[in-house]
Amino acid sequence: MPARTAAIQVVVGTAGHVDHGKSSLVIALTGTDPDRLPEEKRRGMTIELGFAFLRGPAGLDLAFIDCPGHERFVHHMVAGAGSMDGCLLIIAADEGPCAQTREHLEILRLLDLRWGRVVLTKSDLVDPAGLAAAAELALDLVRGTPFAAEAPIAVSARSGAGLPELRSWLLDRAAECRRQTAGVHPRLPVDRVFSLAGHGTVVTGTLLSGELSPGAEIELFPGGPARIRSLQVNHQPVDRALAGQRTAINLTGIERDAIPRGAWLATPGSLQPTTTVDVRLEVLPTGVRHRIAIEAYHGATHATGRLHLLHLDEAVSGEHEAQLRLDAPLWLRPGDRLVLRRPSPPANLAGAIVVDTAPPHHARFSQEARDWFAARSGRSVEALAAWLTGCPSPPTRADAEGWAGGPAPLAAVLAAAGPACLWRTVGAADRLWLASEHQRLGEALLTWLERRTAAEPERIWHGQEDARQALAPRLPEPVWIDLLDSLAGPTLLRHDGRLAAPGRLPPPPPALAAAARRLLAMYQAAGLEPPYEQAACEAEPDPALAARAQRWLAGRGWLIRVNARTFVHRQQAETLIATVHALLATAPLTLPIARDRLGLSRRRLVECLDWLDAIGVTRRQGDVRLAGPHPSIGQPLIGDPP
Q1: What residues are paired with 7 via a beta bridge?
Q2: Which of 374, 460, 444, 362 is nearest to 409 (CA)?
Q3: What phi and psi values does residue 346 have, to the nearest 5 degrees?
Q4: Is the pLDDT assigned to residue 58 strictly greater than 70?
Q5: How do strand 153-154 and strand 115-121 relate by DSSP bridges?
Q6: What are phi and psi of 280, to 5 degrees?
Q7: What is the mean pLDDT of the chain?
Q8: What is the pTM for the complete model shown?
Q9: pLDDT in the model for residue 2
């Protein structure tokens, strides 16, 4: 009797938000309802993984895994996603992307799904304009993922519209897809366990590698040894199951209750349990902290534990090295992919690629830990960019050398990166920047200053710490100050802990400009004895507008604040400084000499001299004043007078 081997199968999943029509689409494509539980049929909602098959051309079948869309059953979705070759991301045309659409898309990306397509279901419920809008929203969501490779396809399970095109696309795409086996040993994640009268224990799953045949000795991890009695693929008996096929395995020598859902079926002795795992993380923008509680999803099972970051206290995105310390064992191999989720409130945190399943406990920030990972992985420009993107601040040279595995490997990857990376010396340490991030932050700072000034034209100076909190709160203050130093110039001014962007200043409103011109002329005529600030405003037709004009002039340096109550015209202030410098060239400055030369009242003279002390033009020593460390006002003059 010839061997019965099933056709090559390609496993296609459905993912997306609850009630967006995943199961209805599977029924329309295959004629099989993937919802098999009475509760699912009663509630009209998928709870468990569902399965269906589509017969293709000779030698090719499609196996569908229909994933639950409700947030309570994400663990089932992860179990199904790990076995998929490709996936249909289902989005209802009348609702657009929803919470679980985004969550499922994150999971598929973290598991490195290679191909898929967006399917807009319920297309009969929207008009052409609504369908176009839904397609645009979908493309915006999937940008940068495999789902963006082709335009969304609109279908209606009720009318049949779009189904022939989708079916044809699936078969064409599947014909190009061949699952690569991960090794000679068979391995299958168990996603269902049940008993059949007269047959005994049955497990099902997608065979990820190797092949199975009746009579073979096998082991369940956990569970124990067993033997394969018979096999089915697509509900048909076969003599051999191949990698990539959805397989039902009838076992002898083991009871159903001994096999938990999420067990692995593999060659006896080929897997070992582990609770300590070295991983390389791909952290989502939500970020992770050292020792954060996690749930690690692998195949159809998961374990709780804690994530130990090895080189950082916090990672906000990108690639990082870490160790998982789990509360219960998982059966892993290097290269396996995990999804890490936050237990409460539930959310995706990161993907993880297993590096080592029996590592030592690493000392954090140690060279030994860096060397351990470096010996197990290569370094590339892309990996460097991802690592730098995920660091909360530019790393030191020591950290970068640790990441690369030493000075020589770091030098090699930096040479390949060229101008994409740059060093900045901050204090006693060199810091490594992505040049694009350095440039992005600089442009973001100028834009932030421009928007703040547009909202309040008379205020052009803004606190540099306010800017850091708004744009880069994770960046340490010394690194932020160094960034400001590198950007300082004609486009970015720094003065007294404040920032201004002179090239991004909007013109003042006409009324404000007119008030500023009147005030500036008055201050010029008043010399060093103008009215106090409040009196100057009250002499104007609109005191509130005059107060704004004073701030506008002071911010641009045309008025100089001498004390809490007094401004003087900049030209008058510069004349005062020139006169004092001339007097100091011959002898220390005394109060009588200054009064005779400047001709000011005693009160205004004392105010002016105190101001010169404050800005460092002079320094007081007893009853005389000597030359100070600063020769001029210091505050920059910005723009033309109003």
Answers
A1: none
A2: 374
A3: -60, 135
A4: no
A5: parallel
A6: -105, 125
A7: 88
A8: 0.60
A9: 40
Residue ranges with strand state E in 380-526: 421-426, 429-434, 462-463, 493-495, 498-500
Contacts of 390 (CB under 8 A, 6+ apart): 283, 315, 316, 317, 318, 319, 320
Tokens 């051999």 — which residue? 240
Read off φ and ψ for residue 367, nearest 5 degrees. -65, -30
**Which of 284-288, 310-314, 384-388, 628-632 is the least confident region?**
384-388
Nearest to 142 by CA among 15, 323, 319: 15
Residue whose token pair is 């349990």:
273
- Percent of the chain, pLDDT > 90? 49
For helices 99-110 and 128-142, the axis angle rounded to 10 degrees is: 40
Are 265 and 321 a contacting pair, CB within 8 Å?
A: no
**Nearest one of 575, 568, 577, 572 to 532, comparing CA atoms:** 568
Answer yes or no: is pLDDT of 45 > 80. no
The tokens of 408 are what?
A: 């020589």
pLDDT of res. 8 = 64
Look at the chain and count its residues. Answer: 642
Q: How far apart are CA 638 and CA 546, in angstroms?
A: 20
Q: Which two tokens stand for residue 342?
A: 């936050």
Cα(551)–Cα(554) distance, integer angstroms: 5
Nearest to 217 by CA among 180, 249, 193, 258: 249
Give CB contacts under 8 A, 24+ apart, made by 494-497.
Answer: 494/464, 495/461, 495/634, 495/635, 495/636, 496/635, 497/463, 497/464, 497/465
CA distances, 513 to each of 520, 586, 638, 641, 642 (Å):
10, 43, 15, 9, 6
Q: How far is CA 292 from CA 170, 274, 307, 603, 634, in A?
A: 40, 19, 6, 63, 49
Contact between residue 67 and residue 105 where contact means Cβ atoms under 8 Å apart? no
Contact between 342 and 297 under an 8 Å Cβ cutoff? The reply is no
Burial degree of 508 (CB within 10 A; 0-12, 13-18, 19+): buried
pLDDT, tens digit, 9 for 90 and up, residues 444-475: 999 999 999 888 888 889 999 999 999 999 89
> Does residue 179 register a pLDDT over 70?
no
372 touches 359 (CB < 8 A): yes
For 583-642, write each residue's pLDDT tens digit.
898 899 888 888 888 888 889 989 999 999 988 999 999 989 999 898 888 888 887 787
Q: Which amino acid is at 642?
A: P
d(CA 496, CA 422): 28
User: What DSSP designation does 5 have?
Assistant: B
Cβ distance 243 to 181 under 8 Å? yes
**Residue 488: partners with Cβ closer than 8 Å, 6 or more residues away:** 494
Summarised one tens digit per residue, pLDDT across range 65-108 is: 888 877 777 778 888 888 888 999 999 999 999 988 999 999 99
Environment class of residue 215 by beta-carbon count within 10 Å: exposed (0-12), middle (13-18) or buried (19+)? Answer: exposed
Distance CA 638, CA 458 (A): 13
Mean pLDDT is lowest, of 119-128, 145-154, 321-330, 376-385, for 376-385
